[in-house]
Amino acid sequence: MAITIKLPDKVKQILNTLENAGFEAYIVGGCVRDSILGRKPEDWDITTSAKPEQVKALFRRTVDTGIRHGTVTVMLGSEGFEVTTYRIDGKYEDGRHPKDVTFTASLEEDLKRRDFTINAMAYNPERGLVDLFGGMNDIERRLIRAVGDPVSRFTEDALRIMRAVRFSAQLDYTIEPSTLSAIAEMAPNLRKVSAERICTELTKLLISPHPGELMTMYQTGITAIILPELDACMVTPSNNPHHIYSVGEHIIHSVEAVRADRVLRYTMLFHDFGKPRCHFTDENGIDHFPGHARVSAEIAVHVMKRLKFDNDTLNKVELLVANHDLRMDQTARSVRRGIARVGKDMFPLLMEVKVADGAAQAPYRLAEKKADVDRWMKLYREITARGDCIGLDQLSVSGKDLIDAGMKPGPEIGRVLGRMLQDVLDEPKHNNKDYLLSVYIPKKYS
After folding, report:
1. How many CB atoms lie within 10 A of CB 284?
2. Other CB atoms closer than 10 Å to residue 238's CB: what's the count?
3. N or C terminus: which one in the chain shows less Cβ crowding within 10 Å?
4. Which bin fits 259, alpha (ψ -120 to 50), beta or left (φ > 0)?
5. Do 350 and 324 touch, CB atoms closer than 8 A?
6. 69-108 b/e with 16+ CB inside 10 Å = b?
7. pLDDT exceeding 90 applies to what percent of the chain?
8. What is the separation, in whole angstroms, between the first and last Cα of the chain?
9. In sequence order, what E strands does 148-279 have?
10. What is the CA radius of gyration of the chain?
11. What DSSP designation does 120 have?
């Protein structure tokens, strides 16, 4: 069956410019795969027989993004399109980059250096689909298969080890047996890959439709290299009426149970990482993990710093992990305190964390746990609709008011404001300037 791919006008313009100048040009890689699958490509990569200086001569605006390896970015308006010369990679000495590349006139030579068959297809509107390694067949069979010898492909770039599992998670494909075997064999090479690249691939897997492929990462030894904290959880039992899985299995099920949001998925990944350190078994054979939320938050911060996370994600995940076991009564007073603890915007996310945590536990009291969350959210909506004070920014007394009342600037002002807030969280009608000043202003300033 002939394949026809609808190309953006700017991509057509680049292909036509190269072809009219006497060169071959194709779209290649992920954009071909995604177009065949009916997915919108994130970007359009072009491969050509033209050498970089020849590409640059044909277009008014170009950027030398990777010219040493044959890549020039062609700028059309505000959009950039990577155009890469057919190449043969030299020896990989660091498990990441070829020492050098040799430009070639052969499309086949260029395609055979690529990672997986589904990413090793090229397309030109005139010549159609070029599929030399069975990519279409593997799409039909829903397989992730390395191009050629998988050990060689993973030796060239160790990050491909994680990419295989990530594509499996994104596409719901099975990893072909020899490719899977090579992943397990070559997983230690991931030590050569930068933390930033590891983090990017892990994030793509986590926010995919099938984050449960974390289990494949564990079974093939990937997490032993990049996330040994998960491996410790996988071998930690959880013999408790509330649980039916090991700690690690519970974590993976909880990641699957929460919506595909970066902060939420990482929260579920990290939320019980402290349990191996806090684990003890009582005289009845029941496992307990006192203080694990705090320890899990500490470990989460350590892991996120190791993986070079941005501070915003780190801070939000730390907050949610530290409070994922937060206990509240079914009262407005208790929920106000909960909101004050995590913040108005983060409280609904904490409730999603609690639902996912419960969904990955035993059926024991599960309906009751879900009902608790529903009532907490109902109270949250009522509290926010009324505008109850839940933070210092809503308190009717400010630090300036205390200074005007005679207090000197310093830590004591913060302590007094904190006591006022605790009062108002208990009783919202006490959020009155005269009342608070009369009750909490130290007598020596009165």
Report:
1. 6
2. 23
3. N
4. beta
5. yes
6. bbbbbbebeeeebbbbbbbebeebeebeebeebebbeebe
7. 91
8. 89
9. 174-175
10. 28
11. S
What percent of the chain lies above the pLDDT cut of 70? 96
Gap between the Cα atoms of 422 and 340, Å rounded: 10
User: Is 5 exposed, middle or buried, given 0-12, 13-18 or 19+ CB atoms closer than 10 A?
Assistant: middle
Residues 6+ apart with CB under 8 A from 51: 70, 85, 103
Helix count and strand count (H, E) for the chain: 23, 13
Q: Can you tell me the distance from the alpha carbon of 25 to that of 16, in angstroms, rounded to the nearest whole number?
A: 8
Name, in order, each residue with C-beta under 8 angstroms of 152's C-beta and a sequence gap of 6 or more.
none
Q: For residue 161, what pLDDT band results from cuts at 50, 70 and 90?
A: very high
Kindly report the pTM of this predicted structure: 0.92
pLDDT tens per residue, range 317-350 = 999 999 999 999 999 999 999 999 999 999 999 9
Residue 99: is its pLDDT beyond 80? no
* Residue-level pLDDT at 92: 61
Q: What is the DSSP letter of 331?
A: S
Look at residue 93 and tell me whether its pLDDT is greater than 70: no
Can you tell me whether residue 285 is helix, strand or coil? Answer: coil
Q: Output the DSSP codes for 11-39.
A: HHHHHHHHHHTT--EEEETHHHHHHHTTP
- Closest by CA position to 119, among listed 136, 105, 104: 136
Question: Which helix (H) or strand (E) covers residue 79, if one does?
Answer: strand 79-85
Per-residue pLDDT, averaged over 45-63, amounts to 97
